[in-house]
Predict the 3D structure of the following.
Amino acid sequence: MKWTKQRLNNLFFVIGVVAVVVMLFTFDISFVELWQHITHAGYWLVPIIGIWIVIYAINAWAWLCIIRGNCGAETPHGSRFLWRIYRLTITGYALNYATPVGGLGGEPYRILELSKDIGTQRATSSVILYAMMHFLAHFLLWFSTIFLYLALAAIGDLPLTPAIGVAFAAIVVFCLVAFRVLAKGYQGGVAVRIFSWLAKVPGLKGWATRFQATHAEQLRHVDEQIAALYKQDKRAFYSSLALEYLARIVQALEILFMLLLFGVDCGGGFGGIMLTFLHSILILSLTTLLANLLGFLPMQLGVQEGGFVISIAALGLSAALGIFVSIICRVREIIWIAIGILLMKI
């Protein structure tokens, strides 16, 4: 079994390395232009890249809340385990960015590694719960930023047209449906449902049916653990959700730094910078919405770039700024993917 896990670890490592190499050679611009953008960012690259140390720490804290709520007194303690969760958080997201299928490449790796500490069933339920929490935080961001936009429109800062109103109505319906689906998943678990769905997919039907038959009891226990956290430990549930939402807000600082780099500060001063930060949250919200709608592409190739251009242009800023923001974010992603892949061997 140990050799099997080691082979799987090596497989994930190879996939990550190959993905980084492919990304380096699939930029839509030349290396000369890329270098020009990087040199233009200058010392601002330090906070742009460094802010993700904080973001991943918040993500790890949110995941740790779920693990503690799921395992109770059986949760490992000590700085070594905390570092392990932080490392698995970074590596998991690195694999998510680098692989297709909706950004789910990191979850199997997290289960594989975390099972060494808390067992396979609890590791599986904790990772599934955290993935669901990550999705829920995104939907909450998209839902809440509609009201942020309406508030800014009410003070005359942003336009509000019938087309924008229709788009907001569609997003509200989309988010409410997602909230309902996720609530059912939290109340009754999703492990059995996932394999029941996979059993209907051509090419996976035979494998999923055999797996479900062989591991029916384990899957049922995983669903029981998922439902137990939602029903019995609401504090862990909402703490994790609040932290994941906070991570999205902190992520907007990355965009704020790039807007300030281009002199976009809404008049300057504390009030101007705060207004620019609110705009950054809106840009992040719209970009991630577009990227996740087409999340089956590795690193959302092309979608993220288009999302930045569209969202920035929607706020009355230049498309060239959107392209710059998307390129620097892509550089940051590659750097953190490389860090995450290297951490697999530490």
